[in-house]
Design goal:
It is a single chain. The chain has 230 residues and is mainly beta. The two termini are 51 Å apart. The chain is built from two helices and 17 strands. The protein folds into three domains: 30 residues, no CATH class; 43 residues, no CATH class; 140 residues, Sandwich (Jelly Rolls), CATH 2.60.120. The chain is elongated and about 80 Å long. Strands 8, 10, 11, 13, 14 and 16 form a six-stranded antiparallel sheet that branches.
Amino acid sequence: MKYIYVALLLFCSMLQAQVGIGTVDIPESAQLILNSKNQSFVPPRMQDAEMRAISNPVIGSIVFNTTLDAMYLYSNGGWQSMSFKTLPTMIWSKNFAKNSQILPKTSNVHTLANLGSADVISNSPDVFEVLSEGTVRIKKSGNYLFNGAFSVHNLQPGNRKFVLLLKKSGTEFGYLSRGMVDAPIRDEWTTTGSIVLNITAGDIISYYYVLNINADVHMQNLNLSIIKLE
């Protein structure tokens, strides 16, 4: 009886060029409406090879790719995944109260960034594990984008060396930013940088900075983000 009802419904809908399943309230702008409180719409399901073997698919075609476990839409001459994946990310960020963090008066000394677990504002714990200040263990192999920044205020005039660097198990591994800053007057100053590095599962990465100074300079903020690239 159910199939007879659906057949009659489809026949009647052909006459009025609209189809409503589970509803009789069909707006003029709609060709097809499916309505249910306890059932779902299931598009054609097929393997990746079967999907790509479809001859001359119409733009707007939709299938569920069982090989890649994702919905695919045909557009712009190709099959495009409709799934949006968030890349595994860890973000450290720390803002310091004014005049609360005086940098050590050093020259060419690598200072470990004092960013701890309390300063993590976003994390993918299946990929990143904070071990101690400025140090993280990366659990999965792959290519990673490292972004870093630090800023100070009250930087005295003069030519100053600066470095933002990463160490792997205590050994210099990559530079996010480095150079010389020539400050004409006491002022605020910021440096930022990025680098892509290949990481092996289990690598321990630490974040360091260098700023050659001989007078009181105050840290304003430290930031570091790590993103696992697909």
